[in-house]
Amino acid sequence: MQPFGLDLDYVAVVVLFCVGLYMLVAKSNLLKKLLGLNVMETAVFAFIVTAGMVEGGDPPIMVAGTSAPFASPIPHAMVLTGIVVAVSVTAVALALIVQIHAHFGTIEIDELKELP
Amino acid sequence: MTGPWAEALPWVIVLPLVGAALTPAVAVRHPRVAGFWAWGVLLVTAVLASGLVAELLARGPFSYELGGWAASYGIELRFDHFSAWVLPLAVLFVVIVPFSWRYLDHVMPDERRPPFYALLLLNAGGMIGFCVTGDLFNLFVFTEVVSLSSYALVAVGGRGLAAFAALKYLFIGAVSSLLMLFATAQLFVLTGSLNMADVSLGLGEIGSGTAVMVAFAAFAVSFMVKAAMFPVHVWLPDAHAIAPSPVSAVLSGMVVKVGIVGMLRIYQIYFGAEVLELGAFNLALVWLGAVSIVMGAFFAIFQDDIKLMLAYSTISNIGYIVLGLGLASPYAVIGASVHVFNHALIKATLFLAAGSIIHQTGFRTLSDLRGIARTMPQTSAAMAIGAVSIVGLPPTAGFVCKWYIALGAFEANQAPFGFALVFGALFIFIYYIRMLNAFYFQKPVHDEVAQASETPWSMRGPVVLLASLCLILGVLGGIPLNFVEPAVLDLLPFWGQ
Known about the structure:
The complex is a heterodimer of chains A (116) and B (497).
Chain A: H1 8-26, H2 30-51, H3 74-104, H4 109-114
Chain B: H1 9-26, H2 33-59, E1 62-65, E2 76-79, H3 86-103, H4 113-132, H5 136-155, H6 160-191, H7 196-206, H8 210-226, H9 236-242, H10 245-255, H11 257-273, H12 279-301, H13 306-327, H14 330-361, H15 372-375, H16 377-391, H17 397-411, H18 415-441, H19 447-450, H20 457-475, H21 478-491
Antiparallel strand pairs in B: 1-2
Helix pairs in contact in B: 1-2, 1-4, 2-3, 2-4, 3-4, 3-10, 3-14, 3-20, 4-5, 5-6, 5-10, 6-7, 6-8, 6-9, 7-11, 8-11, 9-10, 9-13, 10-14, 12-13, 12-18, 13-14, 13-17, 13-18, 14-16, 14-17, 14-20, 14-21, 16-18, 16-20, 17-18, 17-20
C-alpha cells in the first residue's frame, strides 16, 4: 500500500521509533525510559525485516516445492543478532535500575535529582 | 601474498574474548588469580598484534576470511594502517592491568575480581575486533561488545551513584548504537551487501541520494556520541570520573576512540565510492571540534575533583582530533590520527597517577590534595609530565600532534582555527597549572596527605613507564607520524577540500 506515495511500513517504523524516543526522553521513570528504548529497538528491527521482503518470494528454506525468488535470509540473521544485543542491553539496564532502587529507594529521575 | 603472521588475525579477537569467558573458571578457587590471567592473555594478544603490524609493514594491508567463506558471503577481517591501532591498544592494556591488581583492593571485595577482569578482557577484545573487521554488521556487534562491557565497568566499583552514571551512559550509548544499526541496515538495503569494500563499490554505482545521505548522517551522529563530542558529551564526565581509575584510563583513553576509528572507517567506505561532497560536513566538524576544545577546557577549570577535571579534558582532546579530521589537510589529518594514540597514552598516565594519589590518601579534590608532591614525588612527577604533555608543550607526546594539527589549519587556509587551537591549549594550561600549583607549591591541609607514602611498585611501575613513554614519544614523535602517513594520503584525495 502506498498512500500519498509513501511506503506504509516505513511510515509505521518511523512512528514507532518516534514513540520510543519520546518515552526515552520525556518519561521520568527509569523503567519507562527503558521500555521506550526497547520500542525504538523494535522499530529498527522491523525496518530491517521489511528490507528482506521480496514480492511473492518463498521462505529461503530448501524443501520440495519451493522455487525462486526467495526472501533474503540475511536481514533475519541480522535481526536475530540485534535481538540478542538488545536483550543484553536490557538485562544490564535492569540490573543497574535494581541497584539504583536499592541504594536511593526511588527510580524517578525527578526524585533522584533532588537527592544530595 | 601473505606471510605467516596473517594467520594470527582472527586470534587477536578470539584470544581476549575466550579469555574473558574462561576467567571465572580459572579464578574459581583464588579470585586474585583473575588479574594475572587477564594480564597473561593480553600479553599474548599484544605479541600477536605486533606480529600483525610487522606483517603490515612488510607486505601492506591484508585480509582473512573467517571460516573460509569468501568475502561478501562470509565475514572478512581486514588489517590496514588504521587497524594498527590494535597494537598500542593491547600494549596500554598490558600496562594498565598490573596497576589494577593492588588498586582494586579498596574498590571491591576479592570475589568480584573475576567478573571485573572478564569485563576488561571483553572490552579489549571488542575494541580489537572493531578495528580489524571488514564487515559492517560485525562492526555493530563489536561496538556493542565494547559498549556493554563499558557500561558494566563504570558501575562495577560503586553503588548508587555509579549505577546512575552507568545507566545514563547506557541510555545514550544504546540510542547511538541503534542509529548505527539503522545506518548499517540502510546501506544493506541500498547495496545488498554488508562487506565494507562491496558496500563502497555498490554506493559508487548508485551515486548520491537522500537514502545514502541519511545513512551517512546516522553513522556520523552515532560515532559523535561514542566519541563524546560537544554537544553530545553529557554522558562522559560522570561515567569516567566515577569508574575505578584503571577503568577510567581505559574508557577515556581508548573506548571514546571507537567513535573516531568508526568515523575513519565510514570515510573509507564513502570516499571510495566518491558519492559525497563533504565540504559542509567538514566545516561542521571543524566548528564542533573547536567548540569541544573550548567548552571541555572551560568546564574543566571549574572542577575541584581531579578525575572529573581529567574527564572534561578528554572532551577537549576529542575536539582536537575532530578538528584535525574536519580540516582535511594532510598535516591536520595525520596529526589527528596520531593524537588518537598519543591522547590514549597521556590520559592513561594522568588517570593512573590520579588513581595512585586517590588510593594512597583517600582524597580526590584539589583543595584536599595540596602539597601531595612532598610525600609522593614520583607519582606527582608523572602527573606533571602528563599535564605538560596534554597541554602540548615540547618535548612531549602531546606537542607533536597538536603542532601538526595547527600546521594543518594554516595549510587549509583556516588560520583562525589554528589560533583557536593555540588559545584552547592556553585554556587547558590554566587548569593544569592550578593542579601543579596545588600539588607542588601549597602546604598540606590533611595529615593523610602529609604522611602519605609512595604506592607499591606494581602501581608505581606502570605510571612511571607511561610517563617516560610520553617523553620518549615527544622526542621520537616522527615514527607514528610516518606510519599513518600512507594511509592518510590514500584517503585524502576524496576528502573533499
